[in-house]
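ligand=zinc ion
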Amino acid sequence: MAKLTFLGAAGCVTGSKYLVEAAGKKLLVDCGLFQGTDDLKQRNWSPLPVDPKTIDYLMLTHAHLDHTGWLPVLVRDGYNKSIFANPATIELVEILLKDSGHLQEEEAEDAQKRKWSKHPQPRALYTSADIDPVLRLLKAMPRSGGFDISPEFHVESYDAGHILGSSSLELTITENGKKNVVVFSGDVGRYDQPILNDPKTPAAKQIDLLLCESTYGDREHEAGDPLQLLGDIVNRVVKRGGSIVIPAFAIGRTQTFMYYLRELENLQRIPKVPVYVDSPMALSATDLYLKHKEDHDVEFTRDEQGGGDPLNVHEFHLARSVEESKQINNVKTPCIIISASGMVTGGRVLHHLAQRLGDARNCVILGGFQAEGTRGRALQEGAKTLNLFGQAVPVLAEIVEMGQFSAHAGKSELLRWLTGLQVPPKQTYLTHGEPQAAQALQQAITEKFKWKAAVARYLDSVEV
Ligand SMILES: [Zn+2]
């Protein structure tokens, strides 16, 4: 009997890992890092309940670290088989893991130097040296359509419209001549967003088990035209002589913001203020966004064919080195700074916020999901001070939440995606959501579709 075990993203939004066991083989889907609260992060240090040496195959839904960021530990602990992903995901994973290796090292060094860790001898979860062994195992599978991982496991991929390369995966398991189908939603993106295609629902004719993400299972994104709203903010802040800090990851949201800012400049709806993208990897990520045309929606293809450079603003500055990043502190006239991490858990955005949060003329735009326990969530919930580099920095800047820039489907978009399924799943488990969000989506599914649905529980196993 095939079974699936929730090794992460069950009761929380991070640490995605699902283990499928069938016909004497083990397949791991995603290998994400736990992020957010200390309790969650602690899980990154515990060995997997299954010996990585005994896992036979691994496949990835997309490149985000909460789906791939634990690969270096898994491989160091003995996993040495193929890691299947589509070409765009493979290229993004390389950028992301190298960056993550550096960040882990930097964080451990910083903790040691400034003594903010609870551990007397803080060490890195992994280092840059752990990345190459992972990259060597990455093997390409098609962007869309079918692929045989092994005689037991066949997968069909669908564009999930969440970030470049993101997929929903339909896994067919063959065991003793019998076929069972598991559908993994992966992270589902938004409909009618720029650059990427709309999410596509898998066309399975049989679904024995569905795992559906529920990041925004309990709420809708704010209504309103993102172009108009962003234009209003830029004009308002520039008028009062302030600057805008946008915590955003180099991959995905950075490109979305660049797209809208350029559009606003072209339409002459905002003044041409300097835009600083403070990330060594933003440019490589943007290049990948331009390169992988298979992921582009119709409008973006049209923009590109028109000869434009739709992801570039007029006064663009890229900060690669730490020195260039620090020089942005000297900019006293209005500017826009886009810098990671998106949930303010680390990265260069910390020093930009330390620099600019205390000035009421400035503005911080929160465009993505802010997980429990992160500084981003604290800002979202109206914190009066923010702990940065061991100091309580007063929050005087305007904080704006712009769900319109989220890369995740809102509640009704998740239901729209589910409506596209051609058969009702025999069982549905809600994953990748905080408890309240997962429960709300479970209720909505039960009411709307009358399916059997439950919230996934960490380390639980279910029969397929
Ligand atoms: Zn994601």
